[in-house]
Amino acid sequence: MTDVAGPESVPISELDLAAEFPQATREQWQELVAGVLRKSGKLPEDFAGAPESKLVTRTYDGIEIQPLYTAEDVPGDIGFPGLPPYVRGSRPEGQVGTGWDVRARFTGSDAREVNKAILADLEGGVTSIWLTVPPSELADALNEVYLDLAPVVLDAGPSYEAAASELLALFDEREIPASEATAVLGADPIGLAARSGSAVALEPAAALAARVAGKYPKVRTIVADGLPFHEAGGSDAQELGALVAAGVTYLRALTDAGLDVEAAAGQLEFRLAATADQFSTIAKLRAARRLWARVAEVCGFTSPMRQHAVTSPAMLTRRDPWVNMLRTTVACFGAGVGGADAVTVLPFDAAIGRPDAFSARIARNTHAVLLEESKLAGVADPAGGSWYVEKLTDDLAHAAWAEFTAIEGAGGLVAELASGALGERLAATWEKRSSRIATRRDPLTGVSEFPNLAEKPVVRVPAEATVDGGLPRHRYAEGFEALRDASDAYLASHGSRPKIFLATLGPVAAHTARAGFAANLFQAGGIEAVNPGATDDLPAAFRASGAKIACLCGTDDAYEAQAADVAKALGADHVLLAGKGTYDGVDGNVFAGCDALDVLNGLHAKLGVTR
Known about the structure:
The chain is an alpha/beta fold. It has 20 helices and 17 strands.
């Protein structure tokens, strides 16, 4: 076939669609970057290095994210879908034709209510059930559920043996052939040890897997769960390193129990967190398959990693929880593009309590929109060939392999958990993450940015208590939400919220930017910002506001001319300034990049807000 649009026929294989445009070079791009950076004041005139170095960001694993990627950045042959190292997917066809397994989570002690929720979700498009109920309630929770059509994934914690026995008995009772029964029994003693901080034996789980493997070829027994490490604040590489270390530990236990290594690998499912950083999520899932393929190469089995991606519990907020719909949609997108076999979208209200019917419907509809309307699974490895994604995948795989080998070198994951060494590394990453959250370099929409003090709270039935005592469970918003909780308590006892007065200097056009910034920051701590607008009598407006603390907001020129005099005239207990200037009578500053949490906690103390 040829192109007949021109006077001469050109083979399509040789057709250059940009042939009529001048070839762009990296040097030209660098000149444009340098020009923009100089205009913004971010690049000195005498800067001798590459200007784009000023645009480089770094992940918590130290991976440098460049502003531009080219074909030269691709790390060698990226392979093919369905072939080792499975970076591009565990099946040649990807998810084309089937989509990923839409897996919903169900918890509760009332089996009848859980059963209603399960049946509603199955009718609405859910294809597998992730279930946490007491083992004795399992049959009632799965009443009228066709177990040969809807696989069940158990999550019974230390009661996994009893729960497994109940489910296998249900298979027999409902006359489902052992060769067709499909399930994940959810034994995860390592995850339980990480959550509880207590030692948990691997042998019972391995013995269960040995009994199951011979009779139920489609039933997996073990879950290697990365969520405890993710929720403890860990980086992507730390989560992957611990996840692969858990998988290797289980392989050893299973082979010691008499399974050959291929059968042992077939007993494992891996659970990972999907976050609102879509590219990191895509790269994490692709890198995880590559890491496990390397383990398979060394150990002598062929099974690719079976992946279950869960939208991150750590990223969910209790304040303005509606934004969680956006977070989980992006996370589900990343998980789907990254090639996860099963994906769970946690409902937007999961951080508040037990999800209701509406939030469950929104969660399952997220899958429907991406699968049915966006046709996200219609392409095998949609990210394949993206220079950025391929480089990020490679960098993350190397960082995670270094974490994995460090864990193995220290005696394995069980030893690292027992000694606390892994917990210390996770805590160090959480400290870095907390700093970025506190300074709003990692913004949380609706919480640290654009909070709404008048939002109507979302009320849910409290969820069942989770196992703790081991690695901590963090949510990124917890620091700011603690401030908002304290503000709510202050409102309940005083009839109004704690206040700060915005002393705006000059006309509206001059002070709006900094007044808006300051109000946004203070409201993130539950502090009402009283803005009088343009006024000729700021001291009178301040006294009328009932506030004790003021913040000056205006231009740098206005500060030079008025800041000291206005600060003195206000007579406030404490005066802040929106900006970085130092003036008589000004006690502190708020500015982009300041430690907002520290500032807000200090203001709470001055305003008498207690927790």
